[in-house]
Amino acid sequence: MKRLFILTISAMFALSFLHAQTTHFLSDNHVMQRVSTTSKYLLLPIEESRENDHVRILQNQKVVKEFNCKLAMNKIDYFVPLHLDEFAGKEILLDITISRGNANEQARHTATKEFICWKAMKYADTFDMQNREKFRPVYHHTPLYGWMNDPNGMFYKDGVWHLYFQHNPYGSQWENMTWGHSTSRDLMNWTFENDAVMPDALGTVFSGSAVVDKNNTAGFGSGAVVVMYTSAGQSQTQSLAYSTDNGQTFRKYTGNPVIVSNTPDFRDPKIFWNEEIGKWNMILAEGQHMKIYSSLNLKDWTHESDFGEGYGNHNGVWECPDLLRIGNRWLLICNINPGGPFGGSATQYFVGTFDGRKFMCEDAPEVTKWMDWGKDHYATVTFSNAPDERHVAIPWMSNWQYANDVPTKQYRSANGLPRDLGLFSYQGKTYCSVKPSPEVMNAFASKPVKRLSDACRVDVRLRANTVITLSNGQGETVTMTYNAKNETFEMDRTKSGDTSFSSNFATVTKAPTYGKINTLQIFIDKSSIEVFDADGKMAMSNIVFPSSPYTQLTVKGGKARIYKLK
Ligand code: FRU
């Protein structure tokens, strides 16, 4: 009894609701709300089917922050935390413009003051980030809460892999682009650090990249981490920010923006040091081609050339480029949306040479090469400053066709497994090889186990024709077929579980294997299946939403071994 009392008292302190009198309903689309900042968070209730409301946070009559979120009208899908500790202990005023545009909402005529969000908003000192949703992966990076798309600004320094990502801290759908930040020592176990690069008056923070400026070429300090990203405001412009505490916090460069253009799609700068010319290079996407620049100080950029017109696939906008030297070749990565081989977004690449000014593709213009033959592999770019001249890439494991609608709530989207890129040749042509990074392989025990689980690796020795089936008690199945004669591998997820959220989801994805392949490595993690040829000639990443985990594995014409996480 006594214990119960203590618990109740502490719960009262931990969570308290706003007083009704602090909320002022000025009209059906305007609310003002006074908020004290003595607690750590104000938890905002979100209803995803609504349109976005606009929240301005005022302190001393100045706007100190603004964002969009869908405050709950009739139903709470989840809460998002507004961090109050940023406001230096002084009271703030939320100045909220309520959206009344949604036809669905208009039909229901819920007056703004009847929205359930006003009573449900609460002060708290803790926010439960132990997300227990059933589709949350075990060994893939996910945001602790909120929406995620592209990996950004990835770099390695002093034994730590830094992964920034397009984050919406105020909802689990795309909005309010901010760079979230996670770190890892082994590319498998990630710690969320905080949001690191925030929107400002130039716009929200779209994708970009990072370098470690060892020789202080920019003057921000030797060893400073310098990031370049797209400020997405009225136009898309390129901005710099830098960190002198190993990527934990960033200051914006006062001369932003550093590059402007009058083209609407002008974004996703990838910067890298080019030893051969003793300069920085940068590649960024403009419409349906890439622009290449050079610089001595990361601030002043010279346009060198454009690449892409007439080359590869042009059925969508080119985004998120990368340009890296592998041996005596250069690999130009070009993410494209839509235009992917199975609809929506995907990653194409070009192989060629680069002299610091111009990229020359060695294939005929009509050749298109895909890096991954699944439907959920996008915005893939590599880490800067990786050890041992490795080219470690991380994709976003979703597709713009349905990313906002997949059946998760408190978070949306995971990254694909880290993979090391290389080159291989087949019939006189050079292709990009893709293998799970050694750290990924090391995360699994070396002794096989009998049972399939929802977070494991399955290695399959292939014979001429092999059919691999995963299934559960509900009759949901994923079928994978290797056909040696046709040199193809395919995965059928049409009966994999919930496919109802988008007519674009139920698909069969099919890859060329460029000759025979011997061993497949299949990584299953709750809601994803990534398949790699052990020699790197084929990769296929697909997400799935089974109503219960696949427990049965059958392999016809091959031999499987199952490995658990260590
Ligand atoms: C790719 C992309 C980028 C952009 C970002 C915005 O998925 O559209 O081109 O910078 O997402 O979130």
TrEMBL record:
<protein>
    <submittedName>
        <fullName>Glycosyl hydrolase family 32</fullName>
    </submittedName>
</protein>
<dbReference type="Pfam" id="PF16352">
    <property type="entry name" value="DUF4980"/>
</dbReference>
<dbReference type="InterPro" id="IPR018053">
    <property type="entry name" value="Glyco_hydro_32_AS"/>
</dbReference>
<dbReference type="InterPro" id="IPR001362">
    <property type="entry name" value="Glyco_hydro_32"/>
</dbReference>
<keyword id="KW-0378">Hydrolase</keyword>
<dbReference type="Pfam" id="PF00251">
    <property type="entry name" value="Glyco_hydro_32N"/>
</dbReference>
<dbReference type="GO" id="GO:0004575">
    <property type="term" value="F:sucrose alpha-glucosidase activity"/>
</dbReference>
<dbReference type="InterPro" id="IPR013320">
    <property type="entry name" value="ConA-like_dom_sf"/>
</dbReference>
<dbReference type="InterPro" id="IPR023296">
    <property type="entry name" value="Glyco_hydro_beta-prop_sf"/>
</dbReference>
<feature type="signal peptide">
    <location>
        <begin position="1"/>
        <end position="20"/>
    </location>
</feature>
<dbReference type="GO" id="GO:0005737">
    <property type="term" value="C:cytoplasm"/>
</dbReference>
<feature type="domain" description="Glycosyl hydrolase family 32 C-terminal">
    <location>
        <begin position="457"/>
        <end position="561"/>
    </location>
</feature>
<dbReference type="GO" id="GO:0005987">
    <property type="term" value="P:sucrose catabolic process"/>
</dbReference>
<dbReference type="Pfam" id="PF08244">
    <property type="entry name" value="Glyco_hydro_32C"/>
</dbReference>
<dbReference type="InterPro" id="IPR013148">
    <property type="entry name" value="Glyco_hydro_32_N"/>
</dbReference>
<feature type="domain" description="Glycosyl hydrolase family 32 N-terminal">
    <location>
        <begin position="140"/>
        <end position="425"/>
    </location>
</feature>
<keyword id="KW-0326">Glycosidase</keyword>
<feature type="domain" description="DUF4980">
    <location>
        <begin position="27"/>
        <end position="139"/>
    </location>
</feature>
<dbReference type="InterPro" id="IPR032313">
    <property type="entry name" value="DUF4980"/>
</dbReference>
<keyword id="KW-0732">Signal</keyword>
<comment type="similarity">
    <text>Belongs to the glycosyl hydrolase 32 family.</text>
</comment>
<dbReference type="InterPro" id="IPR013189">
    <property type="entry name" value="Glyco_hydro_32_C"/>
</dbReference>
